[in-house]
Amino acid sequence: MQTSTPTLNPALRDFWLTPARNRVLYGGRSSSKSWDAAGFAVYLATQCNIRVLCARQFQNKIAESVYTLLKIQISRFGLTNQFIITENTIRHKVTGAEFMFYGLWRHIDEIKSLESIDICWIEEAHNLTQEQWDILEPTLRKEGSQFWIIFNPRLTTDFVYKRFVRNTPPDTIKRHINFNENPFLSTTILKVIDAKRNEDEDEFRHIYLGEPLEDDEAVIIKRSWVLAAVDAHKKLGIQPKGVKRIGFDVADSGNDKCATVAAHGFLATHVDEWKAREDELLKSAGRVHALARELDAEIDYDSIGVGAFAGAQFQALNVDHNVKIEYFRFNAGAAVLNPERQVDPNDPKSPKNKDFYANLKAQTWWSVSKRFRNTFNAVTKGEVFDEDDLIAISSECEHLDGLIDELSTPRKDFDNAGRSKVESKKDLDKRDVPSPNKADAFVMAFAPRDKAPTAGMFLSKRHR
After folding, report:
1. Mean pLDDT of 201-221
2. Superkingdom, according to UniProt (predicted)?
3. Which residues contact 434 (CB under 8 A, 6 or more apart)?
4. Which domains does the chain have, with CATH numbers?
């Protein structure tokens, strides 16, 4: 069987062809890293019988893997009739080459038992931990086996950056590539990149030149804190109890998305996100209400803009389904709760809530941040806290990588009176950061309350 080499980025030819145990490809956005890896993997599969383990930190469904990238490249190269593509594997009909897809967090022990792996492709490897690497490295023991480690640098403190970029091990080829070496970019995206350079040089260098950040002191919630919270309930041996809640961030318009995060006590158990137009609020509200019925949970919903009408939809759905799902408005711009109370009750010099927070959104984000910090200290230092002062995220949640990114992105900001607030969506957009829908839903699921459910939510007498 003859198959021509697919069209890949010529700048990476030597990277793929140079013999090495570890291939480390990193750099900024729009640099063709993952597309090129998928293309070269497809080409290899047409030439020889290889087993490729496609891994990433969190993968709870096949759509979160590189499965789609491989399918697209197979189609682009006109090779669809050569492959058998099932719901969770891809195999070449003639060579027998096989692609498998695993999430490291949940399946690391299962991966240890896999045999005859030729290539372990770790996508979005910035979240790889040293403990996982210590397991993976000896697992690939076949002669000539390779690791493909591909990522956009996030923090200089990330294990993968320290291990493979700063202190590169033997038998490793590393390549830093950016958009300016990608010959396939459209004029449109080049204009977007140029606009980012003009708006914010530092952000441009991080996003498009792949320059890592320090553990960003400017953010409200540090990334290391969020990572420590993943499966913290298991690490600390604590079972969730108490109220079940769903935070619902309502899409406003354009490219915005709806998102929900469900929590049981201190544990986030479900994450969802979907596209919805302004005129589809009824459909979205029905989706959230169905989840609330399934989990026996209360709903905290964004009541600004389009979300202002969600309460009426929940009331109607309660009547239609003859249930009493409680729902609460969350107005991010509302006044702070307990305004006369001190931010830190244990510090007599601590300012009052009304003097420290600009609005309820800031108070909520800082409250969640404190719980993340407590969890980090409990997991890494053995400090002891009440369950209500901790926070955990189940690794079984979908969209987990995106949630981690969103929670650790918004920065501290201040109003004209010097009170703390959360970086606005407008300012995030200036940094080329999309709206953090999942993170907003997350903080709503853990937001403090001091009032009863929305008026009128209970069933009418004829439905009781």
Report:
1. 86
2. Bacteria
3. 255, 428
4. 10-206 (3.40.50.300), 223-445 (3.30.420.240)
Tell me the residue type at 24.
V
Q: Please, is 319 exposed, middle or buried when counting C-beta atoms within 10 Å of its C-beta (0-12, 13-18, 19+)?
A: middle
Rg of the chain in Å (alpha carbons): 24
Q: Model's pTM, two decimal places? A: 0.69
- Residues in CB range of 446: below 8 A, 6 or more apart: 245, 247, 263, 364, 367, 368, 371, 391
What proportion of the chain, given as a percentage, has pLDDT over 90? 73
Q: Are 156 and 213 in contact (CB under 8 A)?
A: yes
- Is 145 in contact with 171 (CB distance < 8 Å)? no
The closest alpha carbon to 456, from 300, 281, 319, 321, belongs to 319
- Distance of alpha carbon 45 from alpha carbon 102, whole angstroms: 19
- 150 beta partners: 25
Residue pLDDT, tens place only, 255-288? 789 999 999 999 999 999 999 876 788 899 999 9
- Of 13-27, 265-279, 379-393, 442-456, the least confident: 442-456
C-alpha to C-alpha distance for 358 and 152, rounded to whole angstroms: 34
pLDDT band at residue 2 under the 50/70/90 scheme: very low
Tell me phi and psi for residue 383, to 5 degrees: -70, 155
Rounded to whole angstroms, how far apart are CA atoms 122 and 54? 6
